[in-house]
């Protein structure tokens, strides 16, 4: 079977590609920048942009399933092209899709729920790889500045998200389901920083930002107001499913999710001066 992976060069997308290849399937990868994709040689790379549905249409031909992002563009804004994407996917004969949410269901999820293609919504609470945003400050100053330092989150290794997506696409039988995806334990931001310090053998310091300071920083980074509101609510007052560990990774992939300490050891070079 052949599968299309959108966001194939992103945090989870690369792992969806690798896992599908490991399972013996053919992969077509959609990216806005094919020349920078750096994907395995056996991957068919297609150029397309989810904010421009017509550019995606050729990549849908001849695929059994699609791993689909629900955000697009340089600002990671919620996609408004869900109805077009759902219609095109059905017209191409795609049998199933995995929908990677961005914190709450949006236009893409809603369109597929009304459509004819089998869909499965994947709801990771937060990627461990988002911690890489701390790396420059850790290297330079041995400290980070973040809001909501004591709010727990059951962060998940992006490779586990990729493994779940690939298994759902390859196996089928998950239609109409929404799966919360978590790591094996919840961590606060302070605890994540302490784990990084433990692996590095360094004492690292946490400076807590106010919510207003965090919002101002996100605006300077170019995030739109909708995403800023989502970040503030999700990080500051998350629902219980964001910090309650669930066994989804084990149930779907047959193995335990990776720990945050394992993730740090894999990425320690990014935090080392």
What does this structure look like?
This protein is α/β, with parallel strands linked by helices and about 270 residues long. It has helices at about 15-20, 55, 80-90, 105-115, 135-140, 160-170, 190-200, 210-220, 225-235, 250-255, 260-270, and strands at about 1-5, 25-30, 45, 65-70, 70, 75-80, 95-100, 120-125, 145, 175-180, 205-210. Strand 5 and strand 6 (about 75-80) form a beta hairpin. Helix 1 crosses helix 6. The mean pLDDT is about 95.
Keywords summarizing the entry:
single chain, 273 residues, seven-stranded parallel β-sheet, two-stranded antiparallel sheet
Topology:
Layout: E1 2-6, H1 13-22, E2 26-31, E3 44-47, H2 53-56, E4 65-69, E5 71-72, E6 77-78, H3 82-91, E7 96-100, H4 107-114, E8 118-124, H5 135-141, E9 143-147, H6 158-171, E10 177-181, H7 189-200, E11 205-209, H8 211-220, H9 225-236, H10 248-253, H11 260-271
Parallel strand pairs: 1-2, 1-4, 2-3, 4-7, 7-8, 8-10, 9-11
Antiparallel strand pairs: 5-6
Quaternary state of this entry equals: single chain
Helix % is: 25-40%
How many individual β-strands? Answer: 11
Please outline the major beta sheet. Answer: 7 strands, parallel
Overall average pLDDT: 95
| SSE class | alpha/beta
CA radius of gyration is: 19 Å
Strand content: 15-25%
Inertia-based shape:
globular
- Catalogue the unreliable spans: none
């Amino acid at each position: 079977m052949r599968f299309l992976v959108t966001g194939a060069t992103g945090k989870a997308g690369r792992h969806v590609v690798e896992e599908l290849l490991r399972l013996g399937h053919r992969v077509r990868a959609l990216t806005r920048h094919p020349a920078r994709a750096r994907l395995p040689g056996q991957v068919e790379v297609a150029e397309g942009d989810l904010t421009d549905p017509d550019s995606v249409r050729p990549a849908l031909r001849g695929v059994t399933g699609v791993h689909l992002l629900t955000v697009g563009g340089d600002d990671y804004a919620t996609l408004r092209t869900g109805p077009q994407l759902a219609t095109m996917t059905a017209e191409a004969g795609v049998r199933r899709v995995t929908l990677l949410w961005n914190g709450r269901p949006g236009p893409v999820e809603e369109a597929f729920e009304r459509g004819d293609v089998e869909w499965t919504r994947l709801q990771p609470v937060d990627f461990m790889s988002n911690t890489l945003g701390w790396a420059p400050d850790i290297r330079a100053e041995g400290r980070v500045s973040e809001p909501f330092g004591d709010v727990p989150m059951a962060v998940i290794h992006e490779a586990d998200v990729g493994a779940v997506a690939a298994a759902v696409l390859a196996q089928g039988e998950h239609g109409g389901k929404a799966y919360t995806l978590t790591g094996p334990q919840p961590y606060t931001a302070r605890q994540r920083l302490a784990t990084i310090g433990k692996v590095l053998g360094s004492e690292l310091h946490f400076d807590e930002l106010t919510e207003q300071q965090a919002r101002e920083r996100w605006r300077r980074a170019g995030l739109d107001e909708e995403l800023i509101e989502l970040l503030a609510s999700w990080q500051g007052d998350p629902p219980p499913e964001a910090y309650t560990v669930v066994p989804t990774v084990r149930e779907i992939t047959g193995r335990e999710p990776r720990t945050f300490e394992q993730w740090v050891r894999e990425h320690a070079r990014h935090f080392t001066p």
